[in-house]
């Protein structure tokens, strides 16, 4: 990287790096630095009169130099603690450079340091570490945004969402509470796994690259498998592989993993998302509703200490039991229209002419029409956990027919805070019925539905060997974490959400500048002066441009031979010809 591409602070830090090395100090030592305490534990375990020896390490997040004594603030993986540093303690001999030069001048905010010393309480009552030794562990070359706190209020915040999500590593360092969200996410996953393991179910892994995108209605990502010379799909669901394992004799299997759907991005959707799917033999969707209530109440209690969570001004309770409401009853309740027994054309008429739904076209089958009506008029109204049950067969190609309600299936979706959190079935295990439903999906694909399922012949073959009565559920982990942490945006619970490509300043290439006669070294000087494109110099005066470039050459001590006014005039003339 050319030095002129760096900021003033970055240049200063790199100069400090060179000076440290010249002093024989390795700014990136390889040796282990064995710590024995964390900031939070030191404070919690402090005892008056006990001089506890500790070894800590972390980022230096603040520094107050007061002559021969100073205070620094160290941030480790659990919190922050103050360190008291005196010149004569860390430099007991004649050489005082470690304090006078290294600590005071060559260390920067963001550097990692190690501290050996003892715990004490300052006159102001703050539990601190009195340093006897300090060690540079890693030099930071880019300055951190400095968030200042006064009376509990933050100033100079690093709060632009695009910057925060793109540079999550900075967000985690400087913004309080961000790491806590992801620690809670870990608690959600840990509690879920423990709950399933204690029930006797087995965690498994299934292929991410699949020859057929099955188990859901969604648009897949497509890639190419060079070794086999075939197109493959990133999985949209784990369902069909997990059911194969039930056929193979597992009592219950679950997988927590990534799914990929080549669809939109918004506050509730990321194309790459984490989903849990569970399948248990000899169960039905009624059992699964009760099991899900217990699971979510347990998770909420583990994460928040109680079975309730605050979402904005709403308190959501995961205390079992949850309300259970058939989908057609929900539509009737919210719109006044009873869709039971209605044909596809009748439902289309209600959707388009009565409810004035937009975006409905001829490719929409009965199931998708009902789904659109429910999504527009019902879904967002269910704030407290509600099981929406008994979906029409057209909406549920992998679900067992309802045992007592013709035309419906034994399926539920769990709605919380106006969004779907879980989807579950009494699984279809009749291979002949399953094949017919796959064929119906193919007819929808022929009509133009690009989310219709493709027939998975191997899955049908597995069903023909016999699958026991089974219930299955899928839970969106990202949405679950949003609920458990009170976050309104999915990006807040993803460490690295998908982002648009980072915008770049348009720049003419070194080769393009060379065509004007500009040497490569002066290209960077021109860019530092604000001339990124060849066209930027067309209206410049040669003498004025020479002066601007000369000032940068002098300021950064580059020592370049300054181009003459005539040479610069030639650059300008050639730029005008481009």
Characterize the biggest β-sheet.
8 strands, mixed
Largest sheet: spatial strand order:
8-12-13-20-19-18-17-16
- Under the CATH scheme, which architecture of the largest domain would be assigned? 2-Layer Sandwich
Question: Separation of termini?
Answer: 28 Å
Strand-residue proportion:
15-25%
How many domains is the backbone divided into?
A: 4
Low-confidence stretches: none
Tally of individual helices: 19
Mean pLDDT: 94
GO molecular function, one term: ATP binding
InterPro entries: Aa-tRNA-synt_II, aa-tRNA-synth_II, aa-tRNA-synth_II/BPL/LPL, DUF4332, Lys-tRNA-ligase_II, Lys-tRNA-ligase_II_N, Lys-tRNA-synth_II_C, NA-bd_OB-fold
Pfam family, one: DUF4332
Enzyme class: ligase
Write structural notes for this entry.
The structure is a single chain. The chain is an alpha+beta fold and 578 residues long. The protein has four domains: 142 residues, OB fold (Dihydrolipoamide Acetyltransferase, E2P); 252 residues, BirA Bifunctional Protein, domain 2 (2-Layer Sandwich); 51 residues; 68 residues, no CATH class. The chain is 35% helix and 22% strand. The protein contains 19 helices and 20 strands. The strands form five sheets. The chain has an eight-stranded mixed beta sheet, with helices on both faces. Strand 18 and strand 19 form a beta hairpin. Helix 11 packs parallel to helix 12, helix 13 packs antiparallel against helix 14 and helix 18 crosses helix 19. The longest helix is centred in the N-terminal third of the chain and has 21 residues. The two termini are 28 Å apart. 33% of the residues are buried.
């Amino acid at each position: 990287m050319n030095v002129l591409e760096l900021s003033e602070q970055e240049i200063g830090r790199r100069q400090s790096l060179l000076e440290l090395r010249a002093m024989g100090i390795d700014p990136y030592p390889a040796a282990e630095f064995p710590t024995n305490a964390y900031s939070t534990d030191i404070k919690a375990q402090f005892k008056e009169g006990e001089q506890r020896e500790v070894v800590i390490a972390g980022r230096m997040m603040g520094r107050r130099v007061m002559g021969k004594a100073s205070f620094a603030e160290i941030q480790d993986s659990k919190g922050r603690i103050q360190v008291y540093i005196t010149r004569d303690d860390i430099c007991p001999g004649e050489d005082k450079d470690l304090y006078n030069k290294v600590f005071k001048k060559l260390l920067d905010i963001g550097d990692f340091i190690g501290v050996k010393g003892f715990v004490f309480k300052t006159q102001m009552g703050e539990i601190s570490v009195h340093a006897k030794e300090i060690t540079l562990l890693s030099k930071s070359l880019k300055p951190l945004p400095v968030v200042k706190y006064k009376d509990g209020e933050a100033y100079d915040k690093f709060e632009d969402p695009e910057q925060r999500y793109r540079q999550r590593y900075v967000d985690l360092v400087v913004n309080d509470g961000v790491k806590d969200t992801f620690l809670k996410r870990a608690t959600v996953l840990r509690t879920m796994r423990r709950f399933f393991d204690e029930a006797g179910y087995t965690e498994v892994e299934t292929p991410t690259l699949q020859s057929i995108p099955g188990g859901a209605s969604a648009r897949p990502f497509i890639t190419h498998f060079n070794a086999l010379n075939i197109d493959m799909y990133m999985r949209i669901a784990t369902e069909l592989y997990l059911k194969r394992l039930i056929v193979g004799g597992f009592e219950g299997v679950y997988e927590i993993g990534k799914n990929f759907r080549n669809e939109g991005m918004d506050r509730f959707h990321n194309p790459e998302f984490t989903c849990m799917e569970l399948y248990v033999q000899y169960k039905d969707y009624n059992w699964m509703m009760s099991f899900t209530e217990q699971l979510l109440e347990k998770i909420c209690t583990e994460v928040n200490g109680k079975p309730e969570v605050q979402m904005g001004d709403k308190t959501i309770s995961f205390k079992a039991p949850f309300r259970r409401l058939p989908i057609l009853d929900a539509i009737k309740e919210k719109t006044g229209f009873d869709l039971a027994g209605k044909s596809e054309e009748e439902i289309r008429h209600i959707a388009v002419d009565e409810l004035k739904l937009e975006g409905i076209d001829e490719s929409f089958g009965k199931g998708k029409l009902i789904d659109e009506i429910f999504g527009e008029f019902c879904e967002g109204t269910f704030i407290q956990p509600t099981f929406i049950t008994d979906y029409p067969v057209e909406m549920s190609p992998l679900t067992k027919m309802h045992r007592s309600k013709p035309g419906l299936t034994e399926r539920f979706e769990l709605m919380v805070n106006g969004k779907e959190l879980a989807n579950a079935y009494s699984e279809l295990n009749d291979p002949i019925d399953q094949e017919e439903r796959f064929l119906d999906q193919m007819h929808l694909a022929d009509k133009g539905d690009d989310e219709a399922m493709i027939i998975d012949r191997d899955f049908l073959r597995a069903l023909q060997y016999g699958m026991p009565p089974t219930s299955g559920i899928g839970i969106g982990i990202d949405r679950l974490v949003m609920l458990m942490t009170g976050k309104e945006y999915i990006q807040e619970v993803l460490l690295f959400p998908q982002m648009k490509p980072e915008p770049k300043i348009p720049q003419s290439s070194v080769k393009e500048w060379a065509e004007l006669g500009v040497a490569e070294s002066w290209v960077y000087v021109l860019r530092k002066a604000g001339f990124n494109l060849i066209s930027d110099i067309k209206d410049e005066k040669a003498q004025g441009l020479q002066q601007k470039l000369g000032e940068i050459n002098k300021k950064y001590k580059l020592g370049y031979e300054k181009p003459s006014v005539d040479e610069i005039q030639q650059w300008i003339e050639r730029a005008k010809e481009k």
